[in-house]
Specification:
With 178 residues, the chain is of the alpha/beta class. Helices cover 34% and strands 21% of the residues. A 6-stranded parallel sheet has the order 3-2-1-4-5-6, with helices on both faces. The radius of gyration is 15 Å and the shape is globular.
Length: 178
Amino acid sequence: MKALLVIDVQNGIVNFGEFKEELLVMENVIKDFKDSKSPVIFMRHVDDMEESPLYKDSVGSELHASLKDYADHVIEKQTPSSFVNTSLSETLEKLGVEHLFITGFNTEFCCMFTAIAAFDRGYNVTFIENATGTVNNEETYEMPGLDIKDFVGTVLHWSNAIEVLDYEEYVEEYTVLK
């Protein structure tokens, strides 16, 4: 069975930038999973530090209104990996998941860490590159010309361990409405 992870689509991230295109792609993938009766699992990052935009008791930590109603399961986490100190492994096992699809925020942290951790745990992993987003940019990393999503997608693809697709390739490969 396949399942979709929607990572950290929360007010404290989404409201930080312009993510209309990424949210639309995520919603299209979610709708496909819903149509195929496959589980959609939202990860919600919560921080204990009050100054964090994802502070556990803040509006910033809440799932973004545009997608939150699609969640079949919501699991809280406190690290970039969705597997560390969470109930994700148990949830996936109960659901009989073998293939995990990755979408959400931030591409180079929580999405990438979760994809690698899922592979390490024996899952088939598909990373939908343009169904991820990040609040960071080339200035953040002092690397002119850096396209973070493309860079992470390339690294994961070259690993020969994690399948990396853009949304159009995902539709061609996996949807029933080809």
